[in-house]
Amino acid sequence: MRPSQRPGPRRDLAELPPHGTSPEAAREGARTEGRMPTGEQLLAETEQLKEALERRPVVDMARGVLMAAWSCTAEEGWRILVHVSQHSNTKVHDVAKALVATTQNEPLPAHIEEHLPAALAQWRASRDG
After folding, report:
1. Domain residue spans in the chain?
2. Which of 92, 63, 89 is nearest to 76 (CA)?
3. Total-model pTM
4. Closest by CA position to 117, among listed 75, 88, 94, 91
5. Mind telling me which PROSITE patterns this protein's record contains (predicted)?
6. pLDDT for position 55
7. What is the dihedral of CA 56, 120, 102, 70, to 10 degrees?
8. Looking at residue 37, what is its pLDDT?
9. Nearest by Cα to 79 from 112, 126, 114, 113
10. How many CA atoms lie within 13 A of 72 on its CB side?
11. FRET pair for 22, CA 20 to 30 Å: which of 31, 47, 49, 80?
12. For the chain, which ranges sit under pLDDT 70?
């Protein structure tokens, strides 16, 4: 069925959100205006979800590495990864990849190695205090 044959009101291009609008922002804007997300917005969100599913195993492995090395929980491992990510201005996935690579005798990149001790110290302090 072509778009022009679909039932319901037709939308003018002026009603579409600006190009580059995040799916979350577009959906929120659509909700507040009583509109549904566009096909382009749904496609963008689907791509983001696919990418997240592809990256999740590496992040989970990195959490496992932290759990094994430091006897932390999965949630604490996640918080350590996020702390390093935020303070090194590196995506969580990239921090996780670098950490998993250390299990194959790869050195940690300097910008990650610089922030990991602080993240571990913060975790220890929250655990002990």
Report:
1. 22-128
2. 63
3. 0.65
4. 88
5. ANTAR
6. 86
7. -90
8. 82
9. 126
10. 26
11. 80
12. 1-34
